[in-house]
Amino acid sequence: MTSQTTTVARLHGTLPGPRSRELFERWAKAEAQCTGYQARVCWDRAQGVVVTDVDGNTFLDWTSGVLVTNVGHCHPHLVQAVQAACAKLMNNYECLNEPRVNAAEKLVSILPPHLDKCFFLSTGSEATEACVRIMKRKTGKFEIISFHGGFHGRTYAALSSGGLAGPKKGYGPTLPGAIRVPFPYCYRCPFRAEPETCDLLCLDYLDDAVRANSTGSLAGVMVEAYQGSAGFVFAPPGWFARLQEWIRAHGLLFTLDEVQSSFGRTGKLFAMEWENLEPDLVALGKGIGSGIPTSAVAARGQVIDALGEGEMSSTMGGNPVSCAAVVAVVEILESEKLEQNALRVGALMKSRLLEMKEKCPYVGDVRGLGLVMGVELVKDKKTKEPAPDLTRKLIDVAAQNGLLIGSVGVFGSVIRVAPPLVITEAEAHESLDIFEKSLGML
Question: Is cis: bond before 16, omega within 30 of 0?
Answer without folding.
Answer: yes
